Inverse folding.
């Protein structure tokens, strides 16, 4: 299959994925917007004024990048894990497996669908945030690139989860017991400078901390670690996850006999 | 003619230890209408799965139009269209999107995919249902949707795994005509089916596998010639209380006005008529009992014999 045909195949998967999540927008776009609106109201408007300022900015402004990033992470992950596992469950994944498409096109196609939903939800949440607070963008390039890389990373992670999943329960275990705790402990609502030294050190093991801080640096110009370190971690995990997806598809884990 | 599919010493042992294929070899010539038969669990679907990349082989060689799947699987897959046994499309998707997406996976530009999808959906009488979610289609329509999807990239080798299962007789005949037409246009077809009448009617060559081993590889005509005894059905004018005695023949009274008589190929049918007439039995009509292939098939897979009859 030459590059032109691969591009058409890639475009087909992306179009199909975008159509899927926009068709069920009440399940995919609206809930994160409602949830973050509640966060802004409770943590920003009600509790925020009592906390005051963090690193020189009002608390509500401080938590916005983390909340946007949280919605991007969960949406990118959820899109791929649900779509790929659904295709596996209904066996329509075979449509792609019997075609001459290379494995990397399947991986990139699903990931692009996840990125599209992540960015779509992130944009909606940002628009909701703008109703509550002014957002200066300190570094456009950093903001956009961290967004893209993070959504890509979690789209790949969702694919890995879906490949191993044997039931619909399996696609909820990682988001519930791994992703959500890591996200909440990833510095969305606080700066790690507020933590005791031990827990501050432990926080650096959490990769989501780097994504939240990288994004916060892009919007507010504030970060708890060097931006170079944040990029290294994000890019490193993204590459590892992409290679893992390719390896699993090539090996046929969970999808080929 | 070149070989559309060459299979050499194909073996598959699943992780559970089940040996689904034990060194099967056969060849399908380009343009053939080929039957791949066997009882449930014989290894037919495993063979198809290996050819279409859904199952990994343990050993052996598979070549599709001279492209070895170990080295040029992507190119080999371009030639193959597959209609699986089970419905494996997204039931929430519309038929038009299912067919067009499949074309996209083969790198066919959207405008051409649209034309082809329309052609095949119309040919298979699904055009009116193109925008209805696939879950609302009847069983027969779902089968035809699988065929439209398999054909949209114009494969040179079409593999049909039980394509008419659950389809009513009238629709099945229509699908046979459609498959014959596809074959006449140059597409090689491999058919697996439980309706042996279907294989007898459509196919020229046949392979029978059982317990992962090749039992027969010949033409349908040669296989039927191996049948030494044929069963004829006689419809009688007057009812009988018991089967008449015909020395040298096996006679069964199916109901009061229907007789089934097994006649060896060495014997003339005239003798049967003479004997019946002598006993005052009048025959209204006579026909060859269908499913001749079925009789052979049952003998082969139950006894493992290569030369039944």
């Amino acid at each position: 299959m030459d590059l032109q045909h691969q591009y058409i195949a890639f475009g087909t998967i992306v179009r199909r994925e975008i159509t899927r999540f926009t068709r069920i927008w009440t399940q995919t776009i609206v809930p994160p917007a409602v949830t973050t609106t509640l966060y802004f109201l409770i943590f920003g408007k009600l509790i925020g004024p009592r906390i005051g300022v963090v690193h020189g900015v009002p608390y509500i402004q401080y938590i916005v990048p983390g909340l946007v990033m949280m919605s991007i992470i969960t949406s990118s992950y959820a899109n791929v894990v649900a779509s790929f596992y659904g295709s596996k469950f209904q066996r329509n994944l075979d449509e792609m497996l019997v075609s001459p498409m290379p494995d990397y096109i399947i991986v990139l196609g699903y990931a692009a669908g996840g990125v599209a939903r992540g960015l779509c939800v992130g944009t909606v949440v940002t628009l909701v945030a703008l109703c509550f607070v002014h957002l200066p963008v300190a570094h456009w390039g950093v903001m956009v690139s961290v967004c893209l890389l993070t959504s890509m990373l979690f789209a790949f992670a969702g694919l890995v989860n879906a490949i191993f999943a044997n039931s619909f329960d399996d696609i909820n275990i990682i988001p519930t017991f791994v992703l959500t705790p890591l996200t909440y402990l990833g510095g969305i609502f606080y700066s790690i400078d507020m933590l005791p030294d031990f827990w501050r050190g432990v926080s650096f093991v959490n990769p989501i901390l780097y994504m939240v801080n990288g994004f916060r640096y892009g919007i507010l110009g504030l970060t708890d670690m060097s931006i170079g370190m944040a990029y290294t971690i994000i890019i490193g995990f993204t590459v590892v996850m992409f290679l893992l997806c390719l390896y699993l598809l090539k090996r046929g884990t969970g999808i080929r006999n | 003619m070149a070989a559309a599919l060459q299979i050499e010493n194909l073996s598959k042992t699943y992780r559970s230890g089940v040996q689904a294929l034990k060194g099967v070899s056969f060849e399908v010539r380009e343009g053939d209408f080929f039957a791949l038969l066997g009882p449930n669990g014989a290894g037919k679907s495993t063979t198809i799965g290996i050819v279409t990349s859904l199952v990994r082989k343990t050993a052996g060689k598979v070549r599709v139009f001279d492209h070895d799947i170990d080295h040029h699987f992507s190119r080999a897959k371009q030639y193959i269209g597959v209609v699986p046994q089970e419905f494996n499309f997204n039931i929430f998707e519309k038929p038009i999107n299912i067919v067009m997406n499949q074309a996209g996976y083969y790198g066919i530009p959207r405008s051409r995919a649209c034309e082809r999808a329309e052609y095949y959906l119309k040919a298979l009488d699904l055009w009116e249902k193109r925008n209805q979610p696939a879950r609302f289609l009847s069983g027969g329509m779902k089968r035809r949707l699988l065929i439209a999807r398999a054909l949209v990239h114009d494969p040179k080798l079409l593999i049909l795994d039980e394509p008419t299962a659950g389809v009513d007789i009238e629709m099945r005949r229509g699908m046979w005509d459609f498959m014959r037409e596809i074959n006449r246009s140059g597409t090689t077809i491999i058919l697996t089916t439980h309706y042996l009448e279907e294989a007898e009617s459509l196919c020229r060559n046949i392979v029978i596998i059982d317990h992962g081993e090749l039992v027969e590889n010949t033409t349908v005509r040669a296989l039927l010639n191996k049948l030494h005894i044929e069963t004829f059905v006689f419809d009688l004018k007057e009812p009988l209380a018991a089967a008449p005695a015909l020395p040298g023949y096996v006679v069964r009274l199916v109901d009061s006005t229907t007789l089934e008589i097994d006649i060896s190929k060495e014997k003339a049918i005239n003798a049967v008529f003479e004997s019946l007439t002598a006993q005052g039995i009048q025959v209204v009509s006579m026909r060859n009992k269908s499913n001749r292939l079925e009789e052979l098939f049952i003998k082969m897979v139950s006894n493992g014999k290569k030369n039944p009859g």
